Amino acid sequence: MNARDAILARVRTALRDVPRDETPADVEVPRPPAPVLPDRVELFAERVADYKATVVRCTPAELPERLAEALHGVARLLVPTDLPAELHPAGPELVEDTPLPVTALDAVDGVLTTARLGIAETGTIVLDHGPGQGRRAATLVPDLHVCVVRTDQVVTGVPDAVAALDPHRPQTWISGPSATSDIELDRVEGVHGPRTLRVLLVG
Amino acid sequence: MSELASESSTRRSARSAEVAPRAAAGGATFLGTPAFPIAAKAALADAQLRRNLAHATGTIRGKRAAVVAEVANWEELRLAGAALKDRTLRHLDTYLTQLETALTKAGATVHWARDAAEANRIVVDIARGHGTDEVVKVKSMATVEIGLNEALADAGITAWETDLAELIVQLGHDLPSHILVPAIHRNRSEVREIFLREMGRAGRPAPPDLTDNPADLAAAAREHLREKFLRAKVAVSGANFAVAETGTLAVVESEGNGRMCLTLPEVLISVVGIEKLVPTWADLDVFLQLLPRSSTGERMNPYTSMWSGVTPGDGPQEVHVVLLDNGRTDVLADEVGRQALRCIRCSACLNVCPVYERTGGHSYGSVYPGPIGAILTPMLRGVGHDEQVDSLPYASSLCGACFEVCPVRIDIPEVLVHLRSQVVDAHRGRPSLQGAAMKAASWMFGTSARTAAAEKLSGLGSRVLDRTVRRRAPGGRRALGSLPWPVSAWSDARDTPVPPPESFRAWWSRTDGGRR
Ligand code: SF4
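Predict the joint structure of the above. Result:
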């Protein structure tokens, strides 16, 4: 017997006690009620900041100025090829990810993207690497990630996010900058991912 | 945990004297480690180790309690998590074939592995097929369990652990001692010494002026590993969850080393235990709430990566998934023990365990340490043929703290008691092994200070006994079911009347360990 059939046969033997007419739906799963939370946009900003990321709220009109501040000191900025033109900042040299080899990603000062949504309860931004969000390596290799999230993209909790997302797309859920607590449980920001995360919350 | 396989075999053989114990063939335990009571005694004498552990587990306990208290529906989430896993396990054949179909449709190649040797062979063959002599690895308990690094080394392929703690363990020729923070037993100055001594032999050296500041140590690891990430062709990962419905795999991490491995190399091989399944995409929301808060005590871990098969133009273009049994179907067949397969490896049970806090992870000699290891390892390996494995169900005070924190409500004390009676049954008439088990029990209950501390920590006393009440004696009198061994040798044959509520310690000394 091949390994597949052998394992499936072992599973069926192991489950002899399960009545043959039982279906998965017969195993009841109590679903917890959705949490009721205060103003989700405020909460999102608070909780992102809890992770030592910076969060700046602004109106669409203020965005260019806030963007310039967030990118202070950046000479070469990586951007996805489909980043909306109104998000192109003045100042840094824009390097389009056409896609570039990984070593080139390692040579820019930062990356600018949009997000798919934000989760208030946990202070998480979720990228599904659709338009404006770049491929996965683009927000990983550079040391600074500046991410623009619209207030209408912020959902309350994890269940709302899961319900809105497409499971067939690759996803990266980001809660603060890269961090480790492996040495005496002292939290250190920035091991392999971006050491700095700046979120611009627009709307 | 493994020999740090270096590029040249001469260098490797020159260092064989300092090689740490290896994962036992077949997995789940480490060869050459003594049975729990003996290892525990040595650990108890190490004051530095106890201080490191007490600080670490105390800190995580506090953080976990705070973020769990924030969630109003926590108990309902736990019930949902347990029920979802039960649904998966009771219909595992259905979900496994569903996952296979979804993964294949998404462009992944699915492999099945009955045991460690089969899983290792599959990974080695894929890596060899790409002509590479190194792979980068995301921390994965399943690959430690099967001894994958050792198998790769035997095939001339170096496996680089990229999680900071795993890197410390690997460079230090050491064994992991905790599920979440494998180098929890090392302090900063030890880490600095290991980096200075070993990094240069494995690639980019640590800067000579390296301090023992955690930020500097992390920066050294960043530089050291980056050159490996940027050139690696093949990566190996595990998965925290595998969604049967959609073929989505999820890896939950903090440092970004996971993202590096999962997205930069051309080829990705994920070794996934068959218990990692969840039925639907929507079910993930329950576990993405339960896991980070139980594990690191955060609302959400910094990074979660999810993918299904191959994404054109983004990430690895060749994706393999190895579905691993290696004893899991034996656990599944045990109706009491089956619940252990719900485990999502959060490590909360380690951090609250009075025994773990005093002895550390190495004493268990097991890939899975702490309370979950004490039940999972004997079930994966089978009882009755290895003294060390058989001592594990006794590495507990049965205080119940592990059950209270477990996000998927695994009744670890219930399974411990159940396994103790299996150990006894397996050793009837074989005094030497009974002696070892006896030592384990007397180690825990024999010293009043130790047991008193355990009971104080958990706030439990006679409840321990209530847990073991599973039957009624004729006439409706409450009776004890399986008592902890060695009492069980007696109680299995007749019903023991329930003693009045008193502390376990008081009961133990009053009855001379249940003999009176
Ligand atoms: S047994 Fe429960 S508490 Fe322990 S690691 Fe597994 S899920 Fe976490």
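Residues 153 and 389 of chain B are 26 Å apart (CA to CA).
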